[in-house]
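The methods section describes the discrete structure representation at length, but only in general terms. Since the whole study asks how a given chain folds, the encoding of that fold should be made plain. An entry of this sort, consisting of the sequence and the corresponding backbone structure tokens, reads as follows:

. . .
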Amino acid sequence: MTCPRPVPGAALRLFLFHHAGGSHLLYKDWEHAFPADWEVCLLDAPGRGRSHGIPLIGNSDELVAYFAGEIQRWTDRPFAFFGHSMGALVAYELTRHLAEEGRRLPVWLGLSACGAPQAAGGERRARHLLTDTELRNWLRSVGGTPDALLDEDGMWRFFGPTFRNDFALVDTWQPVVDAAPLPVPVSAFGGDDDPVVGPERLAAWSDRTERFLGLNLFGGGHFYLGHHQRAITRRITAAVSTARRAAQEHMA
């Protein structure tokens, strides 16, 4: 975990989870956009960032268990989760994991560019089974990956296995379709021209929570957040504040 701006006595910790094939660098400089008393914590899945020496994990349950251990000593104060694409899947399943274990839950969950679980029979992708050429072309069509990485064979040999591993994790995810709604406020985020997940799948997160705070759409595709950092961080701040006020009123 990377904490670019440590805040002793932080009022809240915000954990950010990255996309498939990515790292904490997806959220570079985001810490400056949040309240001064928030501590922003950037998590890396094994095999990248500060976790580059740890073997890749290609199973969602195992990755969730890994992150549950990573954040355990950092949940001593109110905290919230925000995840993009694969990171949203992980944040959702991690919240379920914490609930099942009776551990402290996030005060808010933000899910970006990831569709809600759907019943068997829905469209399932198998990107991890594509040839290298097909996978590189698919990534190029979606955006968010530097051209140099996709165009240069040497770089692809280094980074390609991470993409393939992460897509295997997402593509083979077996969600609990009839899972009880989370007792945590949820907000959904996405691009209005995302070729991977449409607004209807994003809005379907309303069925997975006892309190849905709405769908936030922005102009752009799957990596819309690269063009709307200020607007997104403002909405995250507002949603977390709303969730915390509601929790305090409920306890009063």
